């Protein structure tokens, strides 16, 4: 199965900080905040950078799928600048076909400052740059139709133009999957996301916070009942409580791995999605796919950043 990812092409800048840094800069832990270029530069000006990699939620998933030897490609908008060139090189190095033709833009390539606190949680400040300007014109029909499944990210809905690109991809795709991305992203676009999950997507990935926010659930049993009502595939991660795959009346649970040395949770959900989709694409059962997702997530949280190698 060929899988195409469409998402924000973001260069990740990873730094370690103390809790006080978040408080001083009015940042809510474990969330993603959109900032402008000036604020971004102010935040990172006095920080020690540990690592810089080509990132973005769906891009991380696509690289994970490539590392599991699946045939994958990615569409994400960058500028024809230094960071844009590094971004493309990074994906090509990971055997990902990059399906976007760079051109000179007035807005720079997008960047995400990933702040890791001593408890291993990550808080993100994202300057979308040109990534947030992806449009329907950037989504070429032949790239969509050459693939069996298109994986989208909820973060794309944080700007106006990408919604048209999103809709175009869904209409052209044979099958679509999407990650809800972030609890606050769900809150900003609740009605749109609900309609996507209910009526348009074939597979939805969410963590427990995101899906509870989407449907205003009181208990996790409400989530299960909602998943059963969809008659589609809903995959939910619950941190140390494991994960669930719900498809109609079929409910499959997989326990989380124990006694892990957690260093950085960046990319945990992205790599979980990669593992699950690897199983899905290769005919594994839901249980086996969940196990593969848990395995990928368990490996990545014991490393810095969202790359297994």
Protein architecture, described:
- With 309 residues, the protein is of the alpha/beta class.
- It has a single domain (3-8, 56-108, 130-300), classed as Ribokinase (UDP-N-acetylmuramoyl-L-alanine:D-glutamate ligase, 3-Layer(aba) Sandwich), CATH 3.40.1190.
- Helix content is 39%, strand content 22%.
- The chain is built from 12 helices and 14 strands.
- The protein has helices at residues 19-24, 37-44, 57-67, 82-93, 141-145, 161-172, 183-188, 190-200, 208-215, 220-230, 268-281, 286-300, and strands spanning 3-6, 10-16, 32-34, 49-55, 72-75, 97-98, 110-116, 122-127, 149-153, 176-179, 203-207, 233-237, 243-247, 250-254.
- Strands 6-5-1-9-10-11-12-13-14 form a 9-stranded mixed β-sheet, sandwiched between helices. A 5-stranded mixed β-sheet has the order 3-8-7-2-4.
- The two termini are 24 Å apart.
Would you kindly provide a brief summary of this structure?
The chain is α/β, with parallel strands linked by helices and 309 residues long. The protein has helices at residues 19-24, 37-44, 57-67, 82-93, 141-145, 161-172, 183-188, 190-200, 208-215, 220-230, 268-281, 286-300; strands at 3-6, 10-16, 32-34, 49-55, 72-75, 97-98, 110-116, 122-127, 149-153, 176-179, 203-207, 233-237, 243-247, 250-254. The strands form two sheets. A nine-stranded mixed sheet has the order 6-5-1-9-10-11-12-13-14, sandwiched between helices. A five-stranded mixed sheet has the order 3-8-7-2-4.
